[in-house]
């Protein structure tokens, strides 16, 4: 079957977006991984599948580059908002998100995050050795488990440039303490309203930006009292504005971009 897709990105975190509301199709993990290949496929960090929903404006399903599913993706939701426009309620794998497109960018509202500190000793010895040079020595709680619809381990570090994301990321992603694997957010508190972030995404690897990771890092910093309730999270691809007041939903605002439209024959 021939499918149209849109190549889009949010701060360099790139997607192939398929609108399947009128043409339902099944993409198995092997097919997703083949299409994600940057040499022989389309090339993307995640595939985004838009479908109909009985409880919201649309349903969005996310597939990582390795073919595994992701519950939610903040940058993908901004891209979908840009593509469709207006105000949307979006059914995701972890509930309903609100997406609003304005002249200032695309805002995504997520339910209040769930946050808990993580004891470094609960991780593997290899993880502890790797983390020892990175953790904020002056803080008793440098590791946080944050669920913003998908799970993140937020690691607060003193020197973001010292983080070897390609080595540290997969060690923590696959730590037995996280049986379903986990996204890893390495965050430096630059000031009371600014965070530097580097991401290792579960099933996709190192990416230039992660919307949910930015939300998780901001939530952990706010919970720990290290920042105010409105911060800019700077990543390799650019900055996202995140606001969270305890007891309320979390909002993220940033830009998205359409790169090109394409068509591909998909054999399922």
What would you say about this model in short?
By secondary structure, the protein is of the alpha+beta class.
Secondary-structure map:
Blueprint: E1 2-10, E2 13-19, H1 29-36, E3 46-51, E4 58-64, E5 69-70, H2 74-84, E6 87-92, E7 95-102, E8 105-110, E9 114-117, H3 125-131, E10 143-147, E11 151-156, H4 165-173, E12 183-191, E13 194-201, E14 205-207, H5 211-223, E15 230-235, E16 238-244, E17 250-254, E18 257-265
Parallel strand pairs: 2-3, 4-6, 11-12, 13-15
Antiparallel strand pairs: 1-2, 1-18, 3-4, 4-5, 6-7, 7-8, 8-17, 9-10, 10-11, 12-13, 13-14, 15-16, 16-17
Task: Describe this entry's structure for a reader.
The chain has 268 residues and is of the alpha+beta class. The chain folds into two domains: 2-111 and 255-265, Diaminopimelate Epimerase, Chain A, domain 1 (Roll), CATH 3.10.310.10; 114-248, Diaminopimelate Epimerase, Chain A, domain 1 (Roll), CATH 3.10.310. It has five helices and 18 strands. The chain has helices spanning 29-36, 74-84, 125-131, 165-173, 211-223; strands at 2-10, 13-19, 46-51, 58-64, 69-70, 87-92, 95-102, 105-110, 114-117, 143-147, 151-156, 183-191, 194-201, 205-207, 230-235, 238-244, 250-254, 257-265. A hairpin with a 2-residue loop joins strand 6 (87-92) and strand 7. InterPro entries: DAP_epimerase_AS (IPR018510), DAP_epimerase_DapF (IPR001653). One of its GO terms (biological process) is lysine biosynthetic process via diaminopimelate. Keywords: Amino-acid biosynthesis, Cytoplasm, Isomerase, Lysine biosynthesis.
